[in-house]
Protein backbone atom coordinates (compact mmCIF):
# COMPACT_ATOMS: atom_id res chain seq x y z
CA UNK A 1 0.00 0.00 0.00
CA UNK A 2 2.80 2.44 0.88
CA UNK A 3 4.57 1.62 -2.37
CA UNK A 4 1.39 2.31 -4.37
CA UNK A 5 0.84 5.62 -2.59
CA UNK A 6 4.48 6.64 -3.14
CA UNK A 7 4.29 5.73 -6.84
CA UNK A 8 1.04 7.67 -7.22
CA UNK A 9 2.46 10.78 -5.58
CA UNK A 10 5.53 10.55 -7.82
CA UNK A 11 3.49 10.29 -11.03
CA UNK A 12 0.87 12.91 -10.11
CA UNK A 13 2.92 16.01 -11.14
CA UNK A 14 3.48 14.53 -14.60
CA UNK A 15 -0.27 14.62 -15.24
CA UNK A 16 -0.01 18.38 -15.68
CA UNK A 17 2.38 17.88 -18.61
CA UNK A 18 -0.22 15.85 -20.52
CA UNK A 19 -2.30 18.48 -22.33
CA UNK A 20 -4.43 16.03 -24.24
CA UNK A 21 -6.94 17.57 -26.66
CA UNK A 22 -7.89 20.59 -24.61
CA UNK A 23 -8.16 22.84 -27.69
CA UNK A 24 -9.82 20.39 -30.06
CA UNK A 25 -12.76 21.33 -32.28
CA UNK A 26 -15.01 18.72 -33.88
CA UNK A 27 -15.41 19.06 -37.66
CA UNK A 28 -19.16 19.25 -37.22
CA UNK A 29 -18.74 22.31 -35.02
CA UNK A 30 -16.49 24.49 -37.19
CA UNK A 31 -16.55 26.46 -40.44
CA UNK A 32 -13.19 26.27 -42.22
CA UNK A 33 -12.13 29.73 -43.43
CA UNK A 34 -10.01 29.60 -46.60
CA UNK A 35 -10.24 33.20 -47.79
CA UNK A 36 -10.28 36.56 -46.00
CA UNK A 37 -11.05 39.89 -47.67
CA UNK A 38 -10.42 43.28 -46.08
CA UNK A 39 -12.03 46.44 -47.51
CA UNK A 40 -12.31 49.97 -46.23
CA UNK A 41 -15.82 51.17 -45.36
CA UNK A 42 -15.47 54.79 -44.23
CA UNK A 43 -13.80 54.67 -40.83
CA UNK A 44 -14.68 50.99 -40.45
CA UNK A 45 -13.55 47.74 -42.03
CA UNK A 46 -15.69 45.56 -44.25
CA UNK A 47 -14.58 41.96 -43.75
CA UNK A 48 -15.47 39.10 -46.08
CA UNK A 49 -14.69 35.48 -45.34
CA UNK A 50 -14.89 32.49 -47.66
CA UNK A 51 -15.77 29.24 -45.88
CA UNK A 52 -15.91 25.69 -47.18
CA UNK A 53 -19.27 24.03 -47.71
CA UNK A 54 -18.24 20.43 -46.89
CA UNK A 55 -21.45 18.91 -48.25
CA UNK A 56 -20.54 20.08 -51.76
CA UNK A 57 -16.75 19.62 -51.67
CA UNK A 58 -17.03 15.98 -50.56
CA UNK A 59 -18.16 13.69 -53.35
CA UNK A 60 -21.20 11.83 -52.13
CA UNK A 61 -24.66 10.79 -53.23
CA UNK A 62 -27.44 13.23 -52.82
CA UNK A 63 -25.26 16.34 -53.11
CA UNK A 64 -26.98 19.22 -54.88
CA UNK A 65 -25.19 20.26 -58.07
CA UNK A 66 -26.71 23.74 -57.80
CA UNK A 67 -25.22 24.50 -54.40
CA UNK A 68 -21.87 26.29 -54.13
CA UNK A 69 -18.80 24.64 -52.65
CA UNK A 70 -18.05 27.76 -50.58
CA UNK A 71 -20.11 30.29 -48.65
CA UNK A 72 -19.13 33.92 -48.03
CA UNK A 73 -20.12 36.11 -45.10
CA UNK A 74 -19.68 39.87 -44.80
CA UNK A 75 -19.69 42.16 -41.79
CA UNK A 76 -18.37 45.58 -40.82
CA UNK A 77 -16.65 46.73 -37.66
CA UNK A 78 -14.33 49.38 -36.29
CA UNK A 79 -11.63 46.68 -36.05
CA UNK A 80 -11.06 43.43 -37.91
CA UNK A 81 -11.64 41.13 -34.90
CA UNK A 82 -14.85 43.00 -34.02
CA UNK A 83 -16.21 42.45 -37.53
CA UNK A 84 -15.29 38.76 -37.39
CA UNK A 85 -17.01 38.41 -34.01
CA UNK A 86 -20.14 40.02 -35.45
CA UNK A 87 -20.26 37.21 -38.01
CA UNK A 88 -21.30 34.79 -35.29
CA UNK A 89 -24.89 35.95 -35.86
CA UNK A 90 -24.62 34.84 -39.50
CA UNK A 91 -22.19 31.91 -39.59
CA UNK A 92 -23.74 28.80 -38.01
CA UNK A 93 -20.45 27.43 -36.69
CA UNK A 94 -17.23 28.51 -35.05
CA UNK A 95 -14.86 30.13 -37.58
CA UNK A 96 -11.63 28.15 -37.86
CA UNK A 97 -8.62 29.92 -39.47
CA UNK A 98 -5.86 27.32 -39.47
CA UNK A 99 -6.52 26.50 -43.17
CA UNK A 100 -6.54 30.10 -44.38
CA UNK A 101 -5.01 30.28 -47.88
CA UNK A 102 -5.51 33.83 -49.21
CA UNK A 103 -5.88 37.30 -47.72
CA UNK A 104 -7.17 39.89 -50.20
CA UNK A 105 -6.85 43.64 -49.64
CA UNK A 106 -9.19 45.90 -51.57
CA UNK A 107 -7.38 48.67 -53.44
CA UNK A 108 -8.96 51.35 -51.21
CA UNK A 109 -7.86 49.46 -48.11
CA UNK A 110 -4.32 49.17 -49.45
CA UNK A 111 -4.19 52.92 -50.11
CA UNK A 112 -5.34 53.66 -46.56
CA UNK A 113 -2.62 51.48 -45.00
CA UNK A 114 -2.46 47.80 -44.09
CA UNK A 115 -0.56 47.89 -40.79
CA UNK A 116 -3.64 47.91 -38.54
CA UNK A 117 -5.31 44.83 -40.11
CA UNK A 118 -1.92 43.08 -40.10
CA UNK A 119 -1.72 43.47 -36.33
CA UNK A 120 -4.68 41.13 -35.90
CA UNK A 121 -3.39 38.61 -38.44
CA UNK A 122 0.02 38.43 -36.77
CA UNK A 123 -1.40 38.11 -33.23
CA UNK A 124 -4.03 35.45 -33.91
CA UNK A 125 -2.73 32.13 -32.60
CA UNK A 126 -5.21 30.14 -34.70
CA UNK A 127 -3.64 31.30 -37.97
CA UNK A 128 -0.58 29.84 -39.58
CA UNK A 129 1.78 32.08 -41.55
CA UNK A 130 1.82 30.29 -44.91
CA UNK A 131 -1.15 32.07 -46.50
CA UNK A 132 -0.57 34.60 -49.28
CA UNK A 133 -1.46 38.28 -49.60
CA UNK A 134 -2.79 39.85 -52.79
CA UNK A 135 -4.39 43.19 -53.71
CA UNK A 136 -7.64 43.50 -55.68
CA UNK A 137 -6.97 45.64 -58.75
CA UNK A 138 -9.72 48.24 -59.28
CA UNK A 139 -12.04 46.05 -57.24
CA UNK A 140 -13.08 45.23 -53.72
CA UNK A 141 -11.80 42.19 -51.87
CA UNK A 142 -15.38 41.04 -51.35
CA UNK A 143 -15.91 40.91 -55.13
CA UNK A 144 -12.79 38.79 -55.65
CA UNK A 145 -13.81 36.22 -53.04
CA UNK A 146 -17.23 35.77 -54.65
CA UNK A 147 -15.94 34.69 -58.09
CA UNK A 148 -16.33 30.91 -58.49
CA UNK A 149 -13.77 28.77 -60.28
CA UNK A 150 -14.28 25.86 -62.66
CA UNK A 151 -10.93 24.16 -62.00
CA UNK A 152 -11.12 24.04 -58.22
CA UNK A 153 -14.34 23.95 -56.18
CA UNK A 154 -12.69 26.21 -53.57
CA UNK A 155 -11.75 29.57 -55.17
CA UNK A 156 -9.19 30.46 -52.47
CA UNK A 157 -7.30 27.22 -53.15
CA UNK A 158 -7.44 27.99 -56.86
CA UNK A 159 -5.89 31.42 -56.29
CA UNK A 160 -3.22 29.91 -54.00
CA UNK A 161 -2.04 27.23 -56.45
CA UNK A 162 -2.28 29.60 -59.43
CA UNK A 163 -0.04 32.12 -57.66
CA UNK A 164 2.54 29.47 -56.78
CA UNK A 165 2.60 28.17 -60.36
CA UNK A 166 2.88 31.59 -62.04
CA UNK A 167 5.57 32.67 -59.57
CA UNK A 168 7.65 29.61 -60.40
CA UNK A 169 7.25 29.42 -64.19
CA UNK A 170 6.44 32.97 -65.38
CA UNK A 171 8.04 35.32 -62.81
CA UNK A 172 5.54 38.12 -63.45
CA UNK A 173 3.96 37.62 -60.02
CA UNK A 174 5.25 37.19 -56.50
CA UNK A 175 4.12 35.17 -53.49
CA UNK A 176 4.05 37.12 -50.23
CA UNK A 177 3.36 35.36 -46.93
CA UNK A 178 2.88 36.88 -43.47
CA UNK A 179 6.44 36.45 -42.17
CA UNK A 180 8.01 37.93 -45.30
CA UNK A 181 5.56 40.85 -45.34
CA UNK A 182 6.20 41.74 -41.68
CA UNK A 183 9.94 41.52 -42.30
CA UNK A 184 9.77 43.91 -45.26
CA UNK A 185 7.54 46.38 -43.41
CA UNK A 186 10.08 46.49 -40.59
CA UNK A 187 13.09 46.83 -42.90
CA UNK A 188 14.37 50.28 -43.81
CA UNK A 189 15.57 50.32 -47.38
CA UNK A 190 13.09 47.80 -48.84
CA UNK A 191 9.44 48.50 -49.62
CA UNK A 192 7.02 45.57 -49.95
CA UNK A 193 5.08 44.50 -53.02
CA UNK A 194 2.06 42.24 -53.49
CA UNK A 195 0.64 40.55 -56.55
CA UNK A 196 -2.50 42.15 -57.97
CA UNK A 197 -5.62 40.18 -58.88
CA UNK A 198 -8.10 41.37 -61.47
CA UNK A 199 -11.64 40.26 -62.33
CA UNK A 200 -12.13 39.77 -66.06
CA UNK A 201 -15.65 39.56 -67.42
CA UNK A 202 -19.06 39.77 -65.80
CA UNK A 203 -18.70 40.01 -62.02
CA UNK A 204 -22.37 39.25 -61.36
CA UNK A 205 -22.28 35.98 -63.30
CA UNK A 206 -19.00 35.14 -61.58
CA UNK A 207 -20.89 34.82 -58.29
CA UNK A 208 -23.19 32.12 -59.68
CA UNK A 209 -22.54 28.40 -59.92
CA UNK A 210 -23.15 28.62 -63.67
CA UNK A 211 -19.81 30.44 -64.01
CA UNK A 212 -18.03 27.17 -63.23
CA UNK A 213 -19.98 25.27 -65.88
CA UNK A 214 -18.59 27.10 -68.94
CA UNK A 215 -15.59 26.03 -71.02
CA UNK A 216 -14.86 29.77 -71.32
CA UNK A 217 -16.11 31.22 -67.99
CA UNK A 218 -17.87 34.63 -68.22
CA UNK A 219 -15.86 35.79 -65.18
CA UNK A 220 -12.27 34.90 -64.42
CA UNK A 221 -9.68 35.87 -61.83
CA UNK A 222 -6.24 36.63 -63.27
CA UNK A 223 -3.05 37.88 -61.66
CA UNK A 224 -2.07 41.22 -63.12
CA UNK A 225 1.17 42.97 -62.15
CA UNK A 226 2.10 43.89 -58.60
CA UNK A 227 1.10 46.54 -56.09
CA UNK A 228 3.97 48.68 -54.78
CA UNK A 229 3.90 50.03 -51.23
CA UNK A 230 5.72 52.86 -49.53
CA UNK A 231 5.85 51.84 -45.89
CA UNK A 232 2.38 50.28 -45.39
CA UNK A 233 0.49 52.26 -48.05
CA UNK A 234 -0.16 51.32 -51.66
CA UNK A 235 1.35 53.88 -54.06
CA UNK A 236 1.02 52.38 -57.54
CA UNK A 237 0.89 49.40 -59.87
CA UNK A 238 3.71 47.58 -61.62
CA UNK A 239 2.97 46.16 -65.05
CA UNK A 240 4.19 42.79 -66.31
CA UNK A 241 7.64 44.03 -67.41
CA UNK A 242 8.14 45.99 -64.18
CA UNK A 243 7.28 42.89 -62.17
CA UNK A 244 9.74 40.74 -64.13
CA UNK A 245 12.45 43.37 -63.65
CA UNK A 246 11.72 43.44 -59.91
CA UNK A 247 12.01 39.66 -59.65
CA UNK A 248 15.31 39.70 -61.53
CA UNK A 249 16.80 42.38 -59.26
CA UNK A 250 15.68 40.75 -56.01
CA UNK A 251 16.91 37.35 -57.23
CA UNK A 252 13.53 35.62 -57.23
CA UNK A 253 13.32 34.37 -60.82
CA UNK A 254 13.05 30.59 -61.03
CA UNK A 255 11.96 30.16 -64.64
CA UNK A 256 10.49 32.48 -67.24
CA UNK A 257 10.19 33.04 -70.97
CA UNK A 258 11.23 35.92 -73.22
CA UNK A 259 11.97 36.58 -76.86
CA UNK A 260 14.39 38.52 -79.04
CA UNK A 261 13.96 39.58 -82.67
CA UNK A 262 15.70 37.44 -85.28
CA UNK A 263 18.94 39.14 -86.35
CA UNK A 264 18.54 40.45 -89.90
CA UNK A 265 15.23 38.66 -90.51
CA UNK A 266 11.55 38.73 -89.63
CA UNK A 267 10.26 36.71 -86.70
CA UNK A 268 11.35 36.07 -83.13
CA UNK A 269 13.47 33.64 -81.17
CA UNK A 270 12.02 32.48 -77.84
CA UNK A 271 14.42 32.05 -74.94
CA UNK A 272 13.55 29.92 -71.90
CA UNK A 273 15.34 31.12 -68.75
CA UNK A 274 16.08 28.10 -66.58
CA UNK A 275 18.37 29.65 -63.97
CA UNK A 276 19.06 33.17 -62.71
CA UNK A 277 21.30 34.74 -60.10
CA UNK A 278 21.57 38.43 -59.22
CA UNK A 279 24.05 40.27 -57.01
CA UNK A 280 23.72 43.96 -56.09
CA UNK A 281 27.04 45.80 -55.57
CA UNK A 282 26.73 49.18 -53.76
CA UNK A 283 29.35 51.89 -54.16
CA UNK A 284 29.96 55.25 -52.51
CA UNK A 285 31.07 57.76 -55.15
CA UNK A 286 31.74 61.35 -54.02
CA UNK A 287 29.55 60.70 -51.00
CA UNK A 288 26.60 59.47 -53.11
CA UNK A 289 25.35 55.87 -53.38
CA UNK A 290 25.60 54.07 -56.72
CA UNK A 291 24.79 50.49 -57.61
CA UNK A 292 25.80 47.82 -60.07
CA UNK A 293 23.27 45.05 -60.62
CA UNK A 294 24.93 41.91 -62.03
CA UNK A 295 22.49 39.37 -63.47
CA UNK A 296 23.65 35.97 -64.66
CA UNK A 297 21.18 33.71 -66.44
CA UNK A 298 21.21 30.30 -68.10
CA UNK A 299 18.74 29.88 -70.92
CA UNK A 300 17.61 27.53 -73.68
CA UNK A 301 16.23 28.25 -77.13
CA UNK A 302 12.66 26.95 -77.22
CA UNK A 303 11.38 28.38 -80.51
CA UNK A 304 12.83 29.84 -83.76
CA UNK A 305 10.65 31.64 -86.31
CA UNK A 306 13.30 32.60 -88.88
CA UNK A 307 16.08 31.11 -90.99
CA UNK A 308 19.19 30.96 -88.84
CA UNK A 309 22.08 28.54 -88.45
CA UNK A 310 22.49 27.76 -84.75
CA UNK A 311 25.54 25.61 -85.43
CA UNK A 312 27.61 28.74 -86.08
CA UNK A 313 29.45 30.15 -83.05
CA UNK A 314 29.12 33.70 -84.40
CA UNK A 315 25.34 33.34 -84.57
CA UNK A 316 25.14 32.09 -80.99
CA UNK A 317 27.34 35.00 -79.83
CA UNK A 318 25.04 37.47 -81.61
CA UNK A 319 21.98 35.95 -79.93
CA UNK A 320 23.69 36.28 -76.56
CA UNK A 321 24.44 39.95 -77.20
CA UNK A 322 20.85 40.66 -78.27
CA UNK A 323 19.46 38.81 -75.25
CA UNK A 324 21.77 40.59 -72.80
CA UNK A 325 20.99 44.01 -74.26
CA UNK A 326 17.24 43.49 -74.17
CA UNK A 327 17.20 42.33 -70.55
CA UNK A 328 19.54 45.14 -69.48
CA UNK A 329 17.20 47.66 -71.10
CA UNK A 330 14.10 46.09 -69.54
CA UNK A 331 15.53 46.17 -66.01
CA UNK A 332 17.20 49.57 -66.34
CA UNK A 333 14.16 51.32 -67.82
CA UNK A 334 11.88 49.78 -65.22
CA UNK A 335 14.07 50.93 -62.33
CA UNK A 336 14.21 54.48 -63.75
CA UNK A 337 10.42 54.45 -64.13
CA UNK A 338 9.82 53.34 -60.54
CA UNK A 339 12.31 55.93 -59.26
CA UNK A 340 10.50 58.73 -61.05
CA UNK A 341 6.85 57.70 -60.64
CA UNK A 342 6.68 55.93 -57.27
CA UNK A 343 9.83 56.83 -55.34
CA UNK A 344 9.65 53.57 -53.36
CA UNK A 345 12.67 51.27 -53.15
CA UNK A 346 10.94 47.98 -53.86
CA UNK A 347 14.23 46.40 -54.99
CA UNK A 348 16.17 46.47 -51.73
CA UNK A 349 18.99 48.80 -52.79
CA UNK A 350 18.81 50.45 -49.38
CA UNK A 351 19.36 47.14 -47.60
CA UNK A 352 22.44 46.39 -49.71
CA UNK A 353 23.84 49.89 -49.08
CA UNK A 354 23.15 49.61 -45.35
CA UNK A 355 25.08 46.34 -45.11
CA UNK A 356 28.17 47.70 -46.88
CA UNK A 357 28.19 51.32 -45.64
CA UNK A 358 26.46 51.39 -42.22
CA UNK A 359 27.94 54.77 -41.19
CA UNK A 360 26.81 56.50 -44.38
CA UNK A 361 23.42 54.80 -44.13
CA UNK A 362 22.70 56.26 -40.69
CA UNK A 363 23.32 59.76 -42.05
CA UNK A 364 20.45 59.37 -44.54
CA UNK A 365 17.15 60.68 -43.16
CA UNK A 366 14.81 59.65 -46.00
CA UNK A 367 16.07 56.80 -48.14
CA UNK A 368 13.11 56.84 -50.54
CA UNK A 369 14.01 60.41 -51.52
CA UNK A 370 17.62 59.38 -52.08
CA UNK A 371 16.42 56.38 -54.06
CA UNK A 372 14.87 58.71 -56.65
CA UNK A 373 18.31 60.01 -57.66
CA UNK A 374 20.67 57.03 -57.27
CA UNK A 375 22.58 55.75 -60.30
CA UNK A 376 21.95 52.11 -61.15
CA UNK A 377 23.93 50.22 -63.79
CA UNK A 378 22.60 46.85 -64.98
CA UNK A 379 24.91 44.16 -66.37
CA UNK A 380 23.51 40.92 -67.81
CA UNK A 381 25.64 37.89 -68.67
CA UNK A 382 23.66 35.07 -70.26
CA UNK A 383 24.76 31.57 -71.19
CA UNK A 384 23.02 29.61 -73.92
CA UNK A 385 22.87 26.04 -72.68
CA UNK A 386 20.74 24.17 -75.20
CA UNK A 387 19.24 24.87 -78.60
CA UNK A 388 16.84 21.90 -78.63
CA UNK A 389 16.86 18.61 -80.52
CA UNK A 390 17.24 20.30 -83.93
CA UNK A 391 19.74 22.90 -85.18
CA UNK A 392 17.87 24.26 -88.20
CA UNK A 393 14.40 25.84 -87.82
CA UNK A 394 11.49 23.86 -89.25
CA UNK A 395 10.62 26.44 -91.91
CA UNK A 396 14.20 26.26 -93.24
CA UNK A 397 14.13 22.45 -93.35
CA UNK A 398 10.79 22.31 -95.17
CA UNK A 399 11.81 24.86 -97.83
CA UNK A 400 15.11 23.27 -98.76
Automatic annotation (TrEMBL):
Keyword Nucleotide-binding in record: no
Species per Swiss-Prot/TrEMBL record: Paenibacillus alginolyticus
Keyword Transcription: no
Domain Spore germination protein N-terminal: 24-198
NCBIfam families cross-referenced by the UniProt entry: spore_ger_x_C
Limits of the Spore germination GerAC-like C-terminal domain: 224-388
Name of this chain's protein: Ger(X)C family spore germination protein
InterPro entries according to UniProt: GerAC_N, Spore_GerAC-like, Spore_GerAC-like_C, Spore_GerAC_C_sf
Protein location: Membrane
Keyword terms: Germination, Lipoprotein, Membrane, Palmitate, Signal
Pfam family, one: Spore_GerAC
Topology of this chain in the membrane: Lipid-anchor
Domain of life: Bacteria
Family: Belongs to the GerABKC lipoprotein family.
Amino acid sequence: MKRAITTGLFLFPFLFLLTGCWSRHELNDISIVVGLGIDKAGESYKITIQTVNPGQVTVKKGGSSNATSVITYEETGMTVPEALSRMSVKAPRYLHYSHLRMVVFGEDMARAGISKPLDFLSRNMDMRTDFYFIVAKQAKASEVLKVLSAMDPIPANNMYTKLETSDKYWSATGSMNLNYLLQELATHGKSPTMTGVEILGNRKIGEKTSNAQYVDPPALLIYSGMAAFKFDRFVGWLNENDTKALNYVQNSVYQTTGYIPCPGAEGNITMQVIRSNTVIHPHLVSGLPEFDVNVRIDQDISDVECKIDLSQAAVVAELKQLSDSKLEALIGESIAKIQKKLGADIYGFGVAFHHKYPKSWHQIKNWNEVFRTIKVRVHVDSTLRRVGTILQPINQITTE
